[in-house]
């Protein structure tokens, strides 16, 4: 009978170091990649083999299958932790199904899938011990042995955190510069989850790919002062060795508060309004700086200016949303028309058959509801108002309540609202989403919105144009002269200086910024270092004329050549990767300014769900687990792509 040796994933790795608590460092025998993990948690090794060496992984799985079949047939059973084999006894359960071993690849992959579910859905870790969940696992894969809760909390999730930290530190070590986004979140009056600070780093790799990683999610204890936030940021910077690399720090333009979703005034749709209203009121209280603990906990705008100084940049997407919110307050009649429109929509979706409603809206009614459940922000609501106006005749035919029918005046008000806010909606959609959006879009957006407001006239929505224009000037007019935004927009190949009405002045601003942030620091001077001796030419090829050494271009020459080229729709990072050799000094600055995002980070969207899905009465997550899950969810792509 053939012998059945112990099959281990570590057979494919060379262990080079073994430390305390079972920590080991190994090199892959095939490619030499260094893998760090605990001896008891080998998912890192299995994942590497599966991703990089499929043939070796298939061989490993086949060996495990052969051994499992031998165990199932009752021939052998290997004792854990030993190299001896003896007749199988305990590998069968119930109806004679052999259980996976702890290091079996399928056992590891199922455990990994459960961990991914917990992370992506921000589930409580104790779900792995719920009776119903274990029954489901037993039905789907009887051979799988459910992992206990402490294994998930103490080994699996910390192991994933270690992988993310290691990958992030290695990537940041190679980055020349980076920008940091601060996201501040408070649970609100109805929640006891406290406050959290998320610090996200954005950097461009050597091959011109933008990457973002949540460096830390930390709770803010006591009074959340600017000094406390600065201390936390300094500690995180030291931990990740980026203290001297931070180019800009992006923060909320308003004082510290909860980032609730801004909605159109009065447009309240069925489903979850009460919870959002509670969060909104909490946001208003904190932002207003009322007396008491909420006011004392407030992080003032001036305080953050003192802490971060010229490195601070206001989040453009957030500032744009505040402009819309403030502008709509100047037109009281909007709220009345929007309230009636919401009542009409709620009545129609509750009484009209879904297929009939889908014909009018061009989509299925459940799809409309799902979209609104995912995003109740003002842009999503404005799209709903637009669809209602386009289907006005259909709504009048199916609604049997005259008190809900929109009057001609109310329709005119809503049409003007849609027309006025359409460019603001477009700008908001441009700078939001999962994709990293550079601040190069901010300046053109402000110019476009200014032009739109100056050319638009309203008859019913009195005051809204003036309110939006005043709010836009107050919050975003400074962008038009800010050297950072001028530089970012000029270095974006789709814009360059085509937007400028004073090209020469903006050229001078650009030249100063480039000289400030390049290694040369200004006009090039003769180097004082001795030049290396010329390489000795082979006699065989001495007949070939030597090419004269090319002289480096000045910043002015680079800029002039760059601006002579026609603007292109090519992605800015692709463009500068291709042109880095032609414009070495401009590309240095481009690699810095394009790290600054125009919008908030993925952790903000995670924070928005916390007040709804992670309240204490709904979930029993420990604070430590909560921080870990937020960290892993935000960095999900670093682990599983």
Automatic annotation (TrEMBL):
A biological-process GO annotation: regulation of transcription by RNA polymerase II
InterPro entries: HATC_C_dom, RNaseH-like_sf, Vacuolar_transposase_reg
Gene3D superfamilies per the UniProt record, alphabetical: Zinc finger, BED domain-containing (1.10.10.1070)
GO CC terms: nucleus
Molecular function GO labels: protein dimerization activity
Sequence ranges of Acidic residues compositional bias: 274-287
Domain HAT C-terminal dimerisation: 560-635
Annotated Pfam families: Dimer_Tnp_hAT (PF05699)
Protein name in the entry: Si:dkey-109j17.5
Positions of the UniProt region annotated as Disordered: 76-97, 273-292, 517-538
The organism's taxonomic lineage, starting at the top: Eukaryota, Metazoa, Chordata, Craniata, Vertebrata
